């Protein structure tokens, strides 16, 4: 059985995952109307889908453990970006915020001796390490490219290869 404190923290994480999904959906939509960013568009659609899966996994765990997984209200995310670099900067900031939140819940679970929740959250810890690495790598690539159009073309073409060895990339909508 989840304590009220752990249930509240997990439901806050549900909200954060839902907000992440919405933020990346907005990034995908923005990229979709930019010339030549079909790869970036597909990347952010895939990121949005992944965050929704993370949210659903949390809700299922909360309910399994005797809590109540709350579907949260969402505020409008940022809809437009000054540049591709600014969109990816927001992506990194968002992933760092999610990691900090997960770490706080892990700490809380340990302090309450809730080892089931601690164990469950280890998947999120590993996932966030991967997401942070990915966001940093992509930001570093964009920093190297600067405003070079051929570099941006190659970045867009190759972005799905950065999803890691498990083939987490692909999918998404967007114009093709």
UniProtKB/TrEMBL annotation:
Function summary: Iron-storage protein. May alleviate iron toxicity in the presence of oxygen.
Molecular function terms, GO-annotated: ferric iron binding; ferrous iron binding; identical protein binding; oxidoreductase activity
InterPro entries reported in the protein's UniProt record: Ferritin (IPR001519), Ferritin-like (IPR012347), Ferritin-like_diiron (IPR009040), Ferritin-like_SF (IPR009078), Ferritin_DPS_dom (IPR008331), Ferritin_prok (IPR041719)
Keywords on record: Cytoplasm, Iron, Iron storage, Metal-binding, Oxidoreductase
The Ferritin-like diiron domain, residue ranges: 1-146
PROSITE patterns the record matches: FERRITIN_LIKE
Family in the record: Belongs to the ferritin family. Prokaryotic subfamily.
Xref: CDD domains: Nonheme_Ferritin
EC number, as in UniProt: 1.16.3.2
Database matches in Pfam families: Ferritin (PF00210)
Protein name: Ferritin
A single GO BP: iron ion transport
A GO CC annotation given for this chain: cytoplasm
Binding site for Fe cation: 17, 51, 54, 95, 128
Catalysis performed (reactions): 4 Fe(2+) + O2 + 6 H2O = 4 iron(III) oxide-hydroxide + 12 H(+)
Origin: domain of life: Bacteria
Compartments where located: Cytoplasm
